[in-house]
């Protein structure tokens, strides 16, 4: 009995502790930095009702509105959600940094206090706005930023530009579209694919924000001096909170349109130093390895081998020339085949490039492939480096002897030898043929003559059958309507089908296709395409509720796809659903 009593007491203490741990009481401000001619909004929010709310003394501020009280109480999946907020609107009295002290409230017999908040008040701003205005909140809470990895790179040094869209925690984004895209003049550029947009937490100008990386681009400057990166501009539909509540106490949101731009960025590109620059330098910048290799070191005359000149590592691999081989003149050499195996990420280009020469010796002897040098600018040490390949001896074991062959082993730079052509210049061309002689023939009274004569008479029954089938098909009004609807669906969805597999491009094309279909079928303007009006137009066209619901679901998926991960299977399902829905609507609409 006594044991049960202790257990009951322990359970009561644990319950009280858990309940206490779940209670929150915090202060939230609309901004932490404002001009003296602007207003500040502060919300004291709790997740459980309390008594004896005591706001702080708003020293250095004038209360111009409030306290406004809002309560939200709802049940979701059997769980109760409660929120109560006291809101004040403040006007600063002077310039400086001030602290809004703690607010106090009594909840279930316990005293809870908010954390003090520091506010910086600056001199008057040019365009003071009402802190409760939707457009002003959107302009203050949405920011597009271009983050550049390095503002003073060397010529041909990789830099990255990452475009981030910052959104404050209390604000939402329902849609956006690009108004202008940067062209990156005077840069070699490559975009890095972003498979899906991921919302992350970060800090913007000292305040907590959520952000999404919209675009990543790698740039290699091709000129020295000041180069401009053109801005990326977006038109964004922003969801901002209002002071109004729904019947369940939830805060209502208001839409506002906001145009944001990352702004121009200026990059000051430094020239590569002239001091110590090798004569054979062709513009390679980075960290590289260099080698020359051959597929064979011994072979017979008229056989072939390949010599590969290869550079690997990280740097501007696609933007410089490989050094050329210097070969004895008695070796038959073909134009090199250039190959690139280069991948680009935020660190720049990485991989290897090569030139492969096909070499055919004509005479017996030993032939040197002299060593060659490759020079590059090393960004780590900010100096030039040169790498020399090893000399390679090609031993031709069997074949005719040339008077010049004894001189081929001489070092590079000696007198060039006479070029001796291969007597069999077509050794690698297939000369065996299977020729068939032709004799003149007469067309008159031949099989072709009689076929051409009788063909029009044989085609008459086929024309009659085809004409009857066409008349029957034209009379099938319902069938023609179905075929026309299917063809229309394929027409509008063709661009979306091409983009299957690329989430962002696919859903942009799919949404555009749906809007174009509405324009063509219902004669709707883009400005009228709200969810309510679309449903109203479809109802007036006597379209079934099932088709309307499917159409609205696809539009919703297009919006959600920008913020949620989507698989290839889901994209294919949305495409099939869109095609069948457009076809169904076109059959039903009147």
TrEMBL record:
The keyword Signal applies. Coiled coil: none annotated. The chain crosses the membrane at residues 447-466. Residues 1-21 form the signal peptide. Keywords: Membrane, Signal, Transmembrane, Transmembrane helix. InterPro entries: BatD. This is Protein BatD.
């Amino acid at each position: 009995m006594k044991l049960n009593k202790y257990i009951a007491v322990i359970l009561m203490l644990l319950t009280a502790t858990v309940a206490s741990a779940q209670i929150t009481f915090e202060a939230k401000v609309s901004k932490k930095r404002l001009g003296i001619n602007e207003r500040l909004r502060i919300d004291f929010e709790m997740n459980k009702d309390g008594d004896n709310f005591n706001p702080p003394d708003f020293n250095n501020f004038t209360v111009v509105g409030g306290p406004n009280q809002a309560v939200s109480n709802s049940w979701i999946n059997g769980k109760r959600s409660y929120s109560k907020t006291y809101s004040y609107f403040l006007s600063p009295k002077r310039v400086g940094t001030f602290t809004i002290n703690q607010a106090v409230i009594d909840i279930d017999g316990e005293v809870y206090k908010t954390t003090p908040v520091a506010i910086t008040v600056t001199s008057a701003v040019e365009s003071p706005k009402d802190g409760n205005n939707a457009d002003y909140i959107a302009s203050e809470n949405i920011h597009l930023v271009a983050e550049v990895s390095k503002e003073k790179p060397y010529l041909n040094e990789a830099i990255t530009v990452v475009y981030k869209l910052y959104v404050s925690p209390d604000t939402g984004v329902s849609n956006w579209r690009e108004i202008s895209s940067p062209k990156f003049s005077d840069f070699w550029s490559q975009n890095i694919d972003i498979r899906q947009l991921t919302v992350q937490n970060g800090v913007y100008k000292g305040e907590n924000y959520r952000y999404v990386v919209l675009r990543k681009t790698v740039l290699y400057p091709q000129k020295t001096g000041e180069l401009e990166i053109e801005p990326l501009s977006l038109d964004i539909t922003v969801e901002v909170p209002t002071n109004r509540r729904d019947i369940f106490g939830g805060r209502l949101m208001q839409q506002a349109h906001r145009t944001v731009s990352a702004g121009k960025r200026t990059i000051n590109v430094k020239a590569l130093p002239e001091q110590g620059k090798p004569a054979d330098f062709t513009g390679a910048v980075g960290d590289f390895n260099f080698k020359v290799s051959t597929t064979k070191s011994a072979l017979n005359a008229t056989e072939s081998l390949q010599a590969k000149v290869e550079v690997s590592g990280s740097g501007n691999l696609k933007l410089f020339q490989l050094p050329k081989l210097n070969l004895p003149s008695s070796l038959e050499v073909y134009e090199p085949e250039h190959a690139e195996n280069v991948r680009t990420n935020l660190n720049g280009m990485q991989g290897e490039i090569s030139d492969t020469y096909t070499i055919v010796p004509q005479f017996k002897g030993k032939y040197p492939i002299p060593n060659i040098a490759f020079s590059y600018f090393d960004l780590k040490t900010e100096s030039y480096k040169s790498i020399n390949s090893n000399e390679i001896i090609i031993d031709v074991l069997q074949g005719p002897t040339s008077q010049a062959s004894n001189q081929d082993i001489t070092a590079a730079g000696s007198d060039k030898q006479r070029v001796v052509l291969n007597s069999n210049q077509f050794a690698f061309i297939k000369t065996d043929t299977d020729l068939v002689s032709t004799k003149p023939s007469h067309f008159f009274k031949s099989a072709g003559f009689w076929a051409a004569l009788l063909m029009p008479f044989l085609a008459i029954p086929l024309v009659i059958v085809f004409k009857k089938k066409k008349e029957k098909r034209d009379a099938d009004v319902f069938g023609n309507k179905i075929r026309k609807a299917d063809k229309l669906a394929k027409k509008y969805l063709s661009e979306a089908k091409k983009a299957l597999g690329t989430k962002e491009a696919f859903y942009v094309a799919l949404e555009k296709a749906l809007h174009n279909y509405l324009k063509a079928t219902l004669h709707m303007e883009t400005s009228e395409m709200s969810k309510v009006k679309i449903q109203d137009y479809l109802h007036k066209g006597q379209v079934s509720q099932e088709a309307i619901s499917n159409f609205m679901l696809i539009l919703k998926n297009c919006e959600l796809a920008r913020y949620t991960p989507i698989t290839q299977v889901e994209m294919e399902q949305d495409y099939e659903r869109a095609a069948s829905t457009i076809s169904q609507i076109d059959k039903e609409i009147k």
